[in-house]
Design brief:
By secondary structure, this protein is α/β, with parallel strands linked by helices. The chain has twelve helices and 13 strands. The strands form three sheets. An eight-stranded mixed beta sheet has the order 2-9-8-7-6-3-4-5, sandwiched between helices. It has a three-stranded antiparallel beta sheet with strand order 10-13-12. The chain is globular. The termini are far apart. Bound molecules: pyridoxal-5'-phosphate.
Length: about 400
């Protein structure tokens, strides 16, 4: 039988982190040593009280379908946590629980966007934004995230990208892949643009707890913005729970009801015992110290990695303010970033991602996820340093 795929499959992209991980695993199976700086997944174990809550939930029989938008206590716990964070009222009816926060983006696009509509998204940015936008037949309009602007989107560039067809603006702060954080004034201006042009805002706040600075109030806490914002968040990063698949969205109630129907037609609900573990994650007094310990370790790793990268000839590295990624500029090595990423894996045993896999503006950069121990970061730095020093002489000033 000839396999014939629907044409929409040609518009679906991927996350290169998963491809590079698979390639790194193949090299390891051949006996090679690889330091994994490619995948954005905390290496810590999920805090034990959360694991225990899931175990207890299973023992107590939480092994059945739940209401599509999530169990009531979970939606209440999410609403309370988000209300504390944003300082504006959030009701359980605005919460939709999903198996992984990227479902929220997919459902938002399915529910709100017509083919041919335009969606503004960050470049470089999380690749799923563009992939899902194009999958639903919309036009992705990338707006640059520039190093010289501290890896913040410039609201005036967003303003210039808006046309009569623009329907949605995707924001991500703290940002993957750069670790950039939007300032209060950026959010004020973006909120004003969304109001003036009647745009939906998808605000991906999955890294908001992994932050080494004070974050401004989220965009949806501004007057009128909660009515047009869909917040994407979840447990994956904050509580080292990527494999549990538990995400959620906050949105206006009528949209939440539509998303519920999308859930009924797709995954039905997130796993029931995972949902109950989420209540422990969000409400147990044991969570705060566990999360702070992880965040301070990420901070120590960031300092080690960024300090080390700055010593490597041809590298320069902006200090990321949040998340667990560093996004150094490697143009000074004279080696194109895609080639450098390949060669670091093949020849030096360090897995990283080329910046252009996050969008055209990512060229000349690499993304390193500091989701490994400080000892592994030190090994990676040594390997990258000796690879770059022997691979090609770097032009020095005046030469
Ligand atoms: C910016 C961003 N948003 C969303 C996600 C997806 O998270 P989840 O595990 O909740 O689907 C990721 C995962 O890497 C991410 O980097």
């Amino acid at each position: 039988m000839t396999l014939h795929f629907a044409s929409r499959m040609d518009r679906l992209g991927t996350e290169s982190a998963f491809e590079v991980l698979a390639q790194a695993r193949r090299l390891e199976a051949e006996g090679r040593s690889v330091v994994h700086l490619e995948i954005g997944e905390p290496d810590f174990a999920t805090p034990p009280h959360i694991v225990e809550a899931a175990h207890q939930a299973m023992v107590d029989g939480a092994t059945h379908y739940t209401p599509a938008a999530g169990l009531a206590p979970v939606r209440e716990a999410v609403a309370a946590a988000q209300q504390r964070r944003a300082g504006v009222p959030v009701s359980a009816g605005q919460v939709v629980v999903v198996p992984g926060s990227k479902n929220i983006l997919h459902f938002a696009l399915l529910a709100l966007i017509e083919p041919g509509d335009e969606v503004i998204l960050p470049d470089p940015g999380y690749p799923v934004y563009r992939s899902l936008t194009e999958f639903v037949g919309a036009t992705a309009v990338p707006v640059a995230i520039r190093e010289e602007n501290d890896f913040r989107v410039d609201p005036e560039e967003v303003a210039a990208a808006i046309t009569p067809r623009t329907r949605m603006l995707i924001l991500n702060s703290p940002q993957n892949p750069t670790g950039g954080v939007l300032a209060e004034s950026d959010l004020d201006r973006l909120a004003e643009l969304a109001q003036r042009h009647d745009l939906w805002v998808v605000s991906d706040e999955i890294y908001s707890e992994i932050c080494f600075c004070d974050l401004p109030r989220p965009i949806w806490s501004r007057p009128g913005l909660a009515e047009r914002t869909i917040v994407m968040d979840g447990l994956s990063k904050t509580y080292a729970m990527c494999g549990w698949r538990l995400g959620y969205g906050i949105m206006p109630e009528p949209l939440a009801r539509r998303m519920e129907t999308l859930l009924i037609n797709t995954s039905a609900c997130a796993a029931s015992f995972t949902q109950l573990a989420a209540v422990a994650a969000l409400e147990s007094p044991l969570s705060e110290p566990a999360v702070s310990a992880m965040v301070s370790e990420f901070r120590a790793r960031r300092d080690l990695l960024v300090g080390g990268l700055r010593e490597i000839p041809g590298f320069s590295c902006h200090l990321p303010l949040a998340s667990f990624y560093a996004f150094p500029n490697v143009s000074g090595t004279g080696i194109p970033s895609r080639e450098l990423a390949h060669r670091l894996l093949d020849e030096a045993g360090v897995a990283a991602l080329a910046g252009e896999t996050f969008g055209d503006q990512g060229v000349d950069h690499l993304r390193f996820a500091y989701t490994v121990s400080q000892a592994d970061i030190a090994t990676a730095l040594e390997r990258i340093g000796s690879f770059v020093r022997s691979a090609r002489p770097v032009a020095t000033a005046g030469s």
